[in-house]
Amino acid sequence: MLLIHPPVAKPCEAPPGIAYLAGAMRQHGHSVTLLDANLEGLLDLLAAPLEGADTWSRQALHNRAAHLNALRSPALFRNLDRYKRAVSDLGRVLDLAGGKYGTSLTFANFEDPHHGPQSSADLLRAAQHPEQNPFYPWFSRRLTALLEQLRPPLIGFSLNFLSQAVTTFAMIGFLRQRFPGLPLVLGGGLLTSWMRQPEWRDPFRALVDHLIPGPGEMPLLALLGEQAGEPHSLPDFGPLKDNPYLAPGFVLPFAASRGCWWNRCSFCPERAEGNPYSSFLPQQIRSDLDRLILETQPALLHLLDSAVHPAVLQMLAERPDPTPWYGFVRLTEHLADGYFCRELRRSGCIMLKLGIESGDQGVLDRMEKGIDLAMASRALAALKEAGIATYIYLLFGTPAESLPEARKTLAFARSHADAITFLNLAIFNLPALEAASGPLETRPFYAGDLSLYRDFIHPKGWNRSQVRSFLEREFKRDAAILPILHRNPPVFTSNHAPFLQQGCHFC
């Protein structure tokens, strides 16, 4: 079979979704070809003949090959300004390529003013007119050649992000026109979220043969006639590990669990969608990691878990292999222990992503975050002392927050600025599933039947425009915050942040 990771997603690491599916399929004797259409499609656009009317565009076009090579070299990541210039220039080239089709295109996003990913009608129109998509010249050639060579029994698409939706359906539409009898399968995180909405009625039944929500291994095996139990298989990256991703070495994405072990936070999509938590024992995870690291020799290990369990962190701290790694973790007492943090650093931990969300304890308690700010302060100090970078996530505009609480968050960030390496600032979106059962007065957030969020009347009058104004005029202009924001890697954000750390021995 052919499994496809469609554009657009950050092209800095191999796509884990299709690699995990491939591992299960090959374990049962099925031949699988993996196509990272995201990476290939973006590189094709970057190499396309383009013209620039202004000086910046002409220079960006002239330097694109050099910039691409530099992003695959550790040297570039030692100079933040040069790194930002390379990303900015390549972004300009993508903008020119997308502009020829009237679309907006970056390494992390794709917007088509005529085809929105929140509307099934728009996605069906994208399928009817695939030639209007900027990736069409590439995927029409590539898919035709692959299918004539492989003649697979089915094709699967892994749709995980809104930025992939329009091109996914353009590719599906092309296949329906060119190879009308070929079975098509659609799965992935975004599709799962759509299908778990109460209003879901499958608008794609005439276009896609099989929709698979949630983990896809067993349903795919069933489509191939296998009646297997729950498989335990390692991701099979195959030739993907040799692809020219935009990172200084192979990044190994690995999930030690599915779902979130905490699973109590208010307004969390994981909880709202009923995604259960499941994980293997730490000993099995360690064995799997040892094998994958030996096979792929990664420059960096990326733990994909919604929150890495403390037991897994303990296992990692005890591993003798110091492969650089990073991931998202919850703030727990483990991280306030200086010795434990030093052991994590010794094991290769280069950066941790932490969802502190608010600097107001009342806001955190009402959101059931399970975070104590005094403990968070101790943890940040311990991580700084151990030499572990932090990527801190803050969330503004939640129902429990107003301007005074937001200013407490600013005060918390200011007082811990020396322990915060990077910052992600987000404005709260209300999941549609939470809106259906909650007390908030809501209204449509996006026009379209596939929207996963609802707008709401803030109980304290702290609306999105006020939140945005506070962030732009007050938070981001604070003297202690400005240097942190300057360090943030543009576009690639946390995916490239570990490589910007001097302690990363690969870099």
Characterize the structure shown.
The longest helix has 20 residues, at about 80-100. The mean pLDDT is about 95. The chain has a six-stranded parallel β-sheet. Strands 2-1-5-6-7 form a five-stranded parallel β-sheet. The two termini are about 35 Å apart. The chain contains 19 helices and 18 strands. The relative contact order is 0.11. Helices cover about 40% and strands about 15% of the residues. The protein has about 500 residues and is α/β, with parallel strands linked by helices. It has two domains: about 1-50 and about 100-225, Cobalamin-binding domain (Rossmann fold, 3-Layer(aba) Sandwich); about 245-500, pyruvate-formate lyase- activating enzyme, CATH 3.80.30.20.
Give the structure's gist in a few sentences:
It is built from 19 helices and 18 strands.
